[in-house]
Amino acid sequence: MKIKKILVSQPKPSSEKSPYYDIAEKYGVEIVFRPFIKVEGLTSKEFRQSKISIPDYTAIIFTARTAIDNFFRLCDEVRYKVPETLKYFCTTEAIAYYLQRYTVYRKRKIFYGVSGKLNDSTLLQSLSKHNKEKYLLPMSDVHEVHKDNNTEVLDNLKINYTKAVMYRTVSNDFKENEPFDYDMLLFFSPSGIDSLLKNFPDFKQGNVKIGTFGATTAKSVDNAGLRLDLQAPTPEAPSMTAALDNYLKKQKD
Length: 253
Fold this sequence. Notes:
Layout: E1 5-8, H1 19-27, E2 30-33, E3 37-41, H2 44-48, E4 59-62, H3 65-77, E5 87-90, H4 93-98, E6 109-112, H5 121-129, E7 134-140, H6 152-156, E8 160-171, E9 184-187, H7 190-199, E10 209-213, H8 215-223, E11 230-232, H9 240-252
Parallel strand pairs: 1-2, 1-9, 4-5, 4-7, 5-6, 7-8, 9-10, 10-11
Antiparallel strand pairs: 3-8
Helix pairs in contact: 1-9, 7-8
């Protein structure tokens, strides 16, 4: 079956230079960006139930921009003025620069890694130098599926930290009259597979192709009794767009 319409379960790219647009033009396919999941921040009332007092912490570890957004949102909601002395440790430079939305970057003590993982050597070196701090680690309710940010490395360094769930991943439900006529579905997290089955409990895959990014997402497809047709990353295709390009090229040939 020729693939004509592809659903990418991510938000629409902000740049028109996205490789997805090149692929759509190259192979004459329609690509629709439609997230199966969305992030929802905890209310201040829900957060208070965790018994975590933000003023008790002297440093904070950010692994995502979403964590930054929800940390400062909750600080506003509980009427806590973030002190200038708070230290920030981020898994990437891009996440660190994102702090400029909420604080005067050049006047703050900000450290960051290179790889985007908690076990990044540069980041771990900074954490080790400041091992007397009391760290807060904002995260989502599904943090445990992200192996790249396994907190075991913090335990090994004897870092004094507390996990704080500040946002959750929920199903981005389809509307009753919303069309679902795709030839291929691309997923990037196990939550996306869960949302597919929640929205379409009687889903029959048939000729619909399913592609995934990451080992845990691929495993979720298998656990759901579905067929995996495309997987990334691989040595030949380090990104989803590269894998999709290769797949459509083979189909065309």
